[in-house]
Amino acid sequence: MESLCFKAPVPSCGVFFAGQALSFRVGVSSRGFSPSSGGLRLGNIVCKVNGRERRKAQRLGRSQEAARKREEVERKREEALIRSRGQVASASDDRKRKYRNSENIIVKNLENLYTSDLSGVTSVGVLQLREEEEIPVGSLRVKDLPLKSKISSPETQAHDAIASVSEVEADTRMEVVHKKFTAAMAEPLTGFDGMSDDKDMEWVEVGVAEEEEGDETVEVWKGDLPPMSPEEEEELLREAEREIAELERAASEGRGSVSGKFELEFESEAEFAQEDEAEEREEDKERVLNKSEKEMKLADLRRLVQRMELELEEESSFSGDDPSSAAEASSVLVKKNKKKRSTESDDGDWEVIYNGPGGNTHTSAGNFKSGEWNSEEEDEEEDSKERGIPAVMRCFDRAKIYVKSGNGGNGVVAFRREKFVPFGGPSGGTGGRGGHVYIEADSSMNSLLPFRNKVHFRAGRGAHGGGKSKDGASGTDITVKVPPGTIIKEAGPEGKVLLELTKPGQRQTLLPGGAGGRGNAAFKTGRNNAPQLAEFGEEGPEMWVELELKLVADVGIVGVPNAGKSTFLSSVSAAKPEIANYPFTTLLPNLGVVAIDYDATMVVADLPGLLEGAHTGVGLGHEFLRHTERCRVLVHVVDGMSLQPEEEYEAVRLELQLFNPELAVKPHIVAFNKLDIPEAAERWESFQANLRSKGVDAFCMSAATRRGTEEVIRAAYAFVEEERINVKDYPEEEEQGVEIADIVRKQRSSRIEEFTIVADKHTRTWQVNGAGLERFTQMTNWEYFEAVRRFQHVLAASGVNRALRDQGVKEGDTVRVGQLEFQWLDSEDMANLGEWKRGVRGSKVWPH
Ligand SMILES: Nc1nc2c(ncn2[C@@H]2O[C@H](COP(=O)(O)OP(=O)(O)OP(=O)(O)O)[C@@H](O)[C@H]2O)c(=O)[nH]1
Ligand SMILES: [Mg+2]
């Protein structure tokens, strides 16, 4: 918003602030204006200090504060003078009165401006608001600007304005004067064309009314002015003058305040300083107090935590036979898992042992030779704190790894030098290709836990070519071993599935290694029989991939915690999962192979228990249900000791459905467990009847005594067989995945003519994108002149130069191809390449 400023010879000049350039708005909002920062000022002008001045003021610091206080005194004196003129009877804080006062001052000032001798006025200033800092002042400093002819004779105009409104009622008169004034001033402002120097500034006192927040216009107070006789006015003036004189005396003597009608105050600078220091001390004391309080609180908290930890330890040492709630068990769980021990034998076998509550141990074991296994207790603790579940559970079936295939070896420039063989010809060999990254399903692995410790997999780089036409050796390939059932995805939220390894021994190329760079022997042609250029080896691609394990099992055992799932698995297979009488004994899925009739086998997976609300994260959540997705049949073990087995059954079914509707339609067998216990046997009849009414046939068994388990297994096997016939073996899933190696190969063979140009006209940068061109740029060895020339030729032949010219590239613009940046030169003569032409063939020195 533009603002008005005036320059006038100033009949009654107000306070001067040395060196402060201020800008203001007529009718500026009073937002940010606080009475405490200066109170109601003469005329209530709200000003904004421009940035430079504000910074200056900040630098001035304390002296500025002192100056402000001096201004305060001055201001009060001004106020006293005004009041003494009879416009306001007392120095009350009443807002309405203040308002009335300021409005009157506006009119007064405007009238002054019009009626006073403005023959000396040479300019009208317009200042722009810059900083959002408002300070109230009573006077304005304006900038010198050429005054338009319209108000070059302000005397007559002002007289006219006053004359025309003299008959109007007193209260509306203000409005009219104000309007006229604004109209008169509006026009010259449009001619504003800049500001002059500070030294040309002068001061004028112009009142501006305080405006209500958000209100656009200046409010004009309407009402009766308190009538005052000339004698009263004079009396008031004399009184004010007396007090001012007294105040000045007090100030010169360095005394405190002067109490009178206007309650003026004055403090010497020394007093200011003293007061400030006292305040600071007070503040410091407060800070110290707060600090000690905080420390006390912190110590209290620490004690509380220690006590809780002790309690937790006591709690967690309860006997294994004690039944306890799920919540208790899971709270103990995290604590107990800290007692992890992991070992690794020399031949790559690994074993992780968890000391569960009640003295039970859970063991996971496997073999991997590619990865190193180290126990990282502290890391795990931190992880478990972060996510609420032990890291080992999170890392069981998920991992994120980095793979990079090897770079190709560089080609070399060499010539055959042999006695009696002049001009032996080029003999620079080609670099070897970089190593590939393979991925293989290893049946000896059953989790992705090894990837907790080894994340980066890099294949070896190809050896450089040699003289005598020797090609470099290929880089060493590496194989990332994963358990069967692993899905390999691109990292990221929308990562595509790249591969799926389901069968043991299945092996795929994940990333092919970079090609070796050609040596100069490869560039020999009829026209150039002594080429002096070679290529760099191609960089091997790198990427982050996410691994996700879905166990490959024929049968999945589901059910609530403590139903006897692990007991069932142990009774039907040779697997030895942890069995204990508390919920969530099983934290990671266990696999077991069940042999039926000697020749038929099937894999059974025992999964961690499910609770109602698992999909919202209750208990261990339903994360592990992912592993049942590949199962052909589900065995639902129902806890016979449960008070309401039917409801329990329904809850688990619902959780299955919520996780994946496909799971709910999978064939499933209901096995009512713990039939050896009389209470359970009592419930069996009603349970069976209940399920039958729903069309489900339930089995009953006692996993502990192995009674009835065979029937369950046979029923499950029948389903498995049926499914096997329906779906001939595993569907060819690996064919569906996106072969990343194919993508890489395709990119490599992409043509250099296929490119796009992205122009940033602002920075004059041209980005040329194209897989073929980028590969070519990366492989160009800039050490050789011929390579540089070849690059230029390729740019021309591929149409890049023409396309850039068509799009308006100019001399000096930046052109980027892949990772390289060039400057565009219009001349065809290749500028500094001229050096090369002067017979520096074969030099490896760039002509800088
Ligand atoms: N009497 C009797 N007890 C059983 C039977 N099956 C399991 N149990 C007991 O039930 C308790 C829990 O058995 P688990 O096999 O650990 O149960 P789970 O379903 O694997 O439990 P989570 O792994 O915690 O989900 C153990 O104390 C078993 O001894 C059974 O058929 N009869
Ligand atoms: Mg279990």
What does this structure look like?
The chain has 848 residues and is of the alpha/beta class. 35% of the residues lie in helices and 17% in strands. The chain contains 21 helices and 28 strands. It has a six-stranded mixed beta sheet with strand order 20-21-19-22-23-24, sandwiched between helices. A hairpin with a 2-residue loop joins strand 27 (814-817) and strand 28. Helix 3 (95-115) packs across helix 4 (154-165) and helix 7 (269-316) packs across helix 8. The protein is flat and about 120 Å long. The structure holds guanosine-5'-triphosphate and magnesium ion. Guanosine-5'-triphosphate is lined by residues 559, 561-567, 579-581, 583-586, 608-609, 673-674, 676-677, 702-704. Residues 237-252, 284-293 have a biased composition (Basic and acidic residues). Residues 212-293, 311-386 are annotated as: Disordered. Keywords: GTP-binding, Magnesium, Metal-binding, Nucleotide-binding.
